[in-house]
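INTERNAL AUDIT FORM
Audit reference: QA-55
Scope: verify that the stored structure record matches its stored sequence.
Auditor: D.O.
Record contents follow.
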Amino acid sequence: MIKVFPFIFILLWSSAFITTKPIIDYSDPFAALAFRFALVAFGFLIFSIYSKQKIIVSKKNFLQSFFSGVLFHGFYLGGVFYSISIGMPTGLAALIVTLQPILTNALSGPILKEKVSIKQWIGVLLGFIGASLVLGFEIGSKIPTSGLIATIIALIAITSSTLWQKTISNNLPLSVSNMNQALGGFSFHLLIIIFFVDPYIEFSKTFIFAMSHQIFLVSFGAFTILMFLIKKNSASKTVSIFFLIPPTSAFMAWLFLNEKLSNLDLLGFFIATIGVYIATRDK
């Protein structure tokens, strides 16, 4: 069953890109994310109580999970949502964030003392090439400077959160850890909307459907699987599967939204799949 988790994660995480734009169309990105993670934290609280998990934990364990949530749900998702909301091309934003496995590979050696083999590097580079072919470079697109900066911050945040999550030593149940991380994300976005933006949410049917998808399938489903994979596997091997997300998102957009899927997309999908296989397969 554990071997199936990466495939489930890829499908669930990829589907989030289809519902991000509808959310931004009907809300301020930070208000939407604050709303999302308030509900996510409450959901994990209810589940933790139902499953009789210990909710009150040590200050150290709480702050470790809380800070991880600030990085992942705050800086990463906030940076991506904000950049797209001000006109950053979605494909370019996704391509920049897709550099994460390369950055993680480069840092996991000196920080985590993980040995990254030549085989893994070859797989990672193939994965990036494949993802790049699918996403394209959006040459000629107008790129807002603040959107580019926000996306780079998001890249640094998701890389840092992955390495941080691997280094923390707490053995909290996933539901409790995820609840604290959601609280971190909620607190981050709440501070943003209090001091920097004029928040709004239009609770249209489209927004409710898209937000429900991201809460239940992505935050409750995909993120829990990701935390489990990071805990059980090496950081460098876990993040390599992110290269399959852009091609899978493109395939879903073709399947459900009637977007075009070119031969170059299919070639990129094939190359990325080979790269991920090489980077993650056992010796």
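Auditor finding: record pair retrieved intact. The chain is about 75% helix and 0% strand.
Action required: none
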